[in-house]
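Please produce the structure of this protein holding adenosine-5'-diphosphate.
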Amino acid sequence: GVTEMSVTDSETLATLNRVFGYEAFRGEQEAVIEHVVAGGDAVVLMPTGGGKSLCYQIPALVRPGTGIVVSPLIALMQDQVDALRALGVRAGFINSTQDFDERRVVEAEFLAGELDLLYLAPERLRLDTTMDLLSRGKISVFAIDEAHCVSQWGHDFRPDYLTLSVLGERWPDVPRIALTATATHATHQEITQRLDMPRARHFVASFDRPNIQYRIVPKSDPRKQLLAFLRAEHAGDAGIVYCLSRNSVERTAEFLSQHGIEAVPYHAGLDAGTRAAHQSRFLREDGLVVVATIAFGMGIDKPDVRFVAHLDLPKSVEGYYQETGRAGRDGLPSTAWMAYGLNDVIQQRKLIQSSEGDEAFRRRAAAHLDSMLALCETARCRRGQLLAYFGQEPDPSGCGNCDTCLTPPETWDGTIAAQKVLSTVVRLQRERGQKFGAGQIIDILLGKRTGRVIQFDHDQLSVFGIGEDLTEGEWRGVVRQLLAQGLLAVEGEYGTLVLTDASATVLRRERKVPLRKEPKRPAASRSGSSS
Ligand code: ADP
Ligand code: ZN
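Below is the modeled complex.
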């Protein structure tokens, strides 16, 4: 009844104030918590930093019994439990890092009803012993954190998550709450279905992070560009730099350190002790930069990360959003900065082609990459494009806080340039039966008599030198954008360029090819050139 509602109401708010020391709920938190406290199932989509934890922690405190939290982030459980205990919450965890005795203590506390929250790794739930244990205690709520791990198409798929569908059968009266920051409609559907939560209420928070400024710059010398960016805008700030390979993580961390910016590497090739040490330095110190592969950051809760920089292209918009979302959780101005170039496109396309996955997997990976490339190449508001990707309505007049809003890029009619590139690819293939990568194609267009051009007689082609009107950098931009628009494709381990079905429409002059202008770079000293 009405009175019952208001009792719950004040109890949840009182818990927020008393235990967590916060004055008010944020966004959807209150609605979610009310619903779960009243015994309902919930699927919660909230961006990273949105405050998902309280959505299950408060119901666990308000309802009788122990809240069971399923989380794949074993490395963080100790920290999470310590943080809760510091607030006076009776929390514990069971995972593979414990010895037998430690586990026994936690189990006994659970059975005695002395725990508010119990964190479990998903692989534990497969075990009969765990199921037995759970059925001998009293459970207030099941929270399934990082619920997108149930999605077989995602990067984070955990087979053990599939077993979580039994929770509803075995404990029909215990509410379940699934939480994730991954937002696409497909993932959302999959979570609901695979966790068997048909009656769940869905709570979808806004994905806009207005305090993050999105910027994507053309890549020339990424480490130097990064250094200039950090010196100009983020001196002394904490931040994360993402690179694709361990090797470039190491070299970038070294480069920054040598140039007076304190930076440490983080990747799966480092031993666990070093990784833990670097992570805790990052959390505790004020202005440390972590250079990392994507292995770093899942579940990291540091409010004052002032920038996230990408030196390599993320594989999907979801990945980009999650990684950049680690900046500015405190709501203060922060930057998401990325350097992106032709080689990123070629490298990612090659990775997809040489992957072990089946045809369907490749098609999905290619679709993910295409959305990411569209974000990089757009001449319109980046935030608008991001929100639209997540199915949310962007502001049609732009956000005013991304590079394309702040300095709208110029576009030009690249139809003829596109035709020149495509004709060169066609000639090589038709007349010579050859395929080459972007470098050789551009050398031919520029009329450069390099060793390889002479070796293959490419100076005899009719297209030799027809592209002297553009610079090498501009040609790389043209090729990159053609790849991004699907008007050109990459093939094989050498990344040779080949036509797509859509290429023909350009060659037949049936469509125009608008391109973004490449920003001017400091002129490279070209000997003898006066133009
Ligand atoms: P998520 O799991 O969604 O990434 P968290 O639950 O870790 O986010 O919360 C992010 C940060 O916001 C944490 O530091 C948390 O303490 C803080 N926070 C959450 N809810 C509130 C609130 N209602 N008022 C103030 N701070 C909050
Ligand atoms: Zn914008």
